[in-house]
Amino acid sequence: MISQISREEIRSAIEDKLCAAFSISSAEATDEQIFEATAIVIRELMSRLLAVSSTRKGDKEVHYMSMEFLMGRSLMKNAYNLGVSEAVVGALEDMGRNAADIFEEEPDAGLGNGGLGRLAACYMDSMATENLPATGYSICYELGIFKQKFVGGRQTEVADNWRTSAESWLIPRYEDVVEVRFGGQVSPHWDNYGHYHAEHTGYTAVTALPRDMLIAGYGGKNINTLRLWDAKSPDSLDMYLFSEGKYVQSMEQRTMVEVITKVLYPADDHKEGKLLRLKQQYFFVSASAQDIVRKHMRRWGDIRSFSRHHVIQINDTHPTMIIPELMRIFMDEHGLGWDDAWELVKNSVAYTNHTVMSEALEKWPQELFQQLLPRLWEIMCEINRRWCDFLAVKFGAGDRLGRNLIIRDGQVHMANLCLASCYMVNGVSRLHGEILKNDLFHDIYTVWPERFTHVTNGIDHRRWLAQINPGLHGLVTELLGGDDYLTKPEELAKLAKFADDETVRAQMNEIKKANKLRFAEFAKRNDNFTLNTDAMMDVQVKRLHEYKRQLLCALNIIALQQRLHDDPNMDFVPRTYVFGAKAAAGYKAAKRIIELLLSLANDVNNDPVCKDKLQVYFVENYRVTAAEAIVPAADVSEQISTAGKEASGTGCMKLMMNGAVTIGTLDGANVEMYERLGDENMFLFGLHTDEIAHWRAHGYDPNGMAQADRELYSVCMRAMNGFADGKSYSDLISNLLFGGDPYMVTADFRPYADCQQRLYERISDPSERGRLAVMNTAQSGFFAADRAIAQYAREIWHIG
Where are the alpha helices (DSSP H) in 481-577? Predict the structure, then answer.
């Protein structure tokens, strides 16, 4: 067994790798070289296990396709799952190294932007742990998500070259390269039997090189693969141009090809950006589809059995082009007719929706599609024609037919392609699933109600509790009499019986204080910020988006600061508001909110009246590693999105699992959290989805509401006039008061401020704070990824 490997054997293996890979002894090696050698040792252990487990594949495989996999750091995670983490730490210490310093050398694998990518990473862990034969597919971004820097009080984006130190995890598979084709022309040909054949000529070829990252399941019994595609030019350079001295021009084709996998989510507020994103998506799905079909033929030899042996789960609409791409492969390369090919596709592809906002559903300009993917465009037109005929029978002519077409108004609607093609469509929380059925996709739900379901998201509780919060893990293990909860997260529910035990409450508070001290070290190292470890830690960490309402939290902080100025001796529970978020490079409003929060932090933190009472800390370059420091230390979890806008959310689950008490709206997974926690253990406020619709329909007047609330009006004026740095945020406030306030910030301000007051009155009592922490951890087991993956396997994939 892997877990029986000793620290001496690990040390010997690391020293051997240092000699073989770097021609250096352990005494001379840098910390980075030690990290890389250790990573190679762990990777080779997983490779050996993969060689064994690959011979035990079942009759059906899962292919999980996502543009994002936010993996974070892998060394300790893989060592933990293999059962050798203590041996690795011991080996490093025996070599005279500080293990923590070595782990710090690993960059975060920035292959994602937020919850979507982190969810995919958690699911890969659970699929491996649950022994499901599964492969993840994505892009091997050279730079991934950007590094966030604060310059002049604003977010700036800096390239994040994560791969330099992460090559130890990536295994290039040159034997599995495939060719992806862009542009060109399609010429029709008809054979003697009247069958259509498409001849694709004049195209630009791109080589897709797979780089595999191995994923160890907990216990080390199963290894799965995350296959990441890297774009390479078939020709390194144009030798003729090079020989003519035109060196830059000779590299032009190679450069243009490699741009495809350069960065995650290039800005698409211009035509070139849209074209690059479309290229990325097709490169990803074409390479993956070819890989899946090729492996199928090697093993099964019969293309007609494809849907019996494969399920392809597309994570949001980014991989949707796999539907027409599979049709192309089945028809053009394997000779199937349309009906036979369509039968295979519609029985093998399932779609997870991740947004409830219709404006966020992906759409592509028709002319880009025609120009870049001529053969796929032909197939899309035929799918749309047949879909239109089907809809006409079901709905007749009219709006219901028009709004569900795949191609309309000069655009290709990817979600509608999923509705036409996928055998299952799932939301990611119960509320989200109901919104899909009753609102967003209601028309198609009335036709195929059996195709719609929901699977509430889940998190990797081994990473997000046991690994990042060893103090809490130790207490849980002690109270439950063992660590069975690591594979049976529902066992956490047994903690509820200890909620009234004063000793346990005190232990929870002690663990939280120790975690704050650790986070304070991170804050000092990351941002030179001095955290008040005696204050409550109130956390809002998530992607920066207007609907997530970081602005609402900011307005409340301004109100608190003003109250302290009005009455410096008021009874006030000390608190530090911690923010962590990146805004998309082209999302101007989100970047302005970050700027406001930085201005506010500077103002509050230098205000003598707020000293030791109120702090604001915006963590620079929020990432998985930062979250691992923040989450265990949090007392309060801010989940305050506009009701009906958050599909699920997973940050709420991580914070809950680590004992933070939630203040939130009835949105996303908050609904299911509230069902388990109730009013005693969770703090709800704000308008519900039906109430928002009513207010909108009957004339919502945010300016009138602000005028009627003296404190809110004063807060708005403060933001408009600016803070100590002299910056005015009149644009953000004007959008609230006179721009319709699309996310109901004004309407929910007073309920939010009052709810905050109630919350802090409760948690000012240490005993009650400890009880709340116990109950939140106890009720969090449902939100484990193992439960979600088991549900996918049972209800959607029909595997296991």
Answer: 502-527, 550-566
Instruction: Please state, in angstroms and rounded to a whole number, the distance separating the CA atoms of residues 427 and 141.
Output: 27
Phi, psi of 114 (to 5 degrees): -175, -140
Taking alpha carbons only, the member of 255, 173, 257 closest to residue 209 is 173
**Secondary structure of 451-486 in the HEC alphabet?**
HEEECCCCECHHHHHHHCCHHHHHHHHHHHCCCHHH
Could you report how far apart the first and last alpha carbons of the chain are, in Å?
24
Instruction: Give me the active site residues, please.
Output: 354, 542-543, 548, 650, 654
Query: How far lies 506's CA from each of 206, 471, 593, 771, in Å?
Result: 60, 13, 38, 9
Phi, psi of 621, deg, nearest 5: 55, 55
Predicted confidence at residue 165, as pLDDT, reads 65
Quote the DSSP letter at residue 234.
S
CA distance 373 to 282: 9
Furthest C-alpha separation in the chain = 93
Give the DSSP letter string of 29-63: --HHHHHHHHHHHHHHHHHHHHHHHGGG--S-EEE
Structure token pair of residue 307: 């849907």
Which parts of 525-640 are beta strand (E)? 536-541, 575-580, 614-619, 636-639
Q: Does residue 512 contact residue 770 with C-beta atoms inside 8 Å?
A: no
Going by the DSSP 8-state scheme, the letter that residue 744 receives in this structure is -
Dist CA 720 CA 733 (whole Å) = 7
Radius of gyration over every alpha carbon of the chain, rounded to an integer in angstroms: 27
Torsion angle defined by CA atoms of residues 424, 425, 430 and 431, in that order, rounded to the nearest 10 degrees: -160
pLDDT of residue 56: 64
Q: Which residues on adjacent β-strands are paired with residue 310? A: 61
Other beta carbons within 10 Å of 5: 18
CA angle 428, 433, 439 (to 5 degrees): 135
Which pair of tokens denotes residue 273?
A: 């950006």
437 token code pair:
């059925």
Tell me the three-class secondary structure of 259-321, residue by residue.
Answer: HHHCCCCCCCCCHHHHHHHHHHHHHHHHHHHHHHHHHHHHHHCCHHHHHHHEEEEEECCCCCC
**pTM confidence score:** 0.94
In this structure, the number of other CB atoms found within 10 A of the CB of residue 18 comes to 23
Alpha carbons 369 and 357: distance in angstroms, whole number = 24
pLDDT above 70 covers what percent of the chain?
98
Q: Which regions of the chain are under pLDDT 70? A: 1-3, 54-56, 165, 238, 240-241, 246-247, 250, 359
- The dihedrals phi and psi of 552, each to the nearest 5 degrees, come to -60, -45
* Other beta carbons less than 10 A from residue 173's beta carbon: 14
Q: How far is CA 323 from CA 185, 283, 361, 418, 583, in A?
A: 21, 14, 17, 8, 31
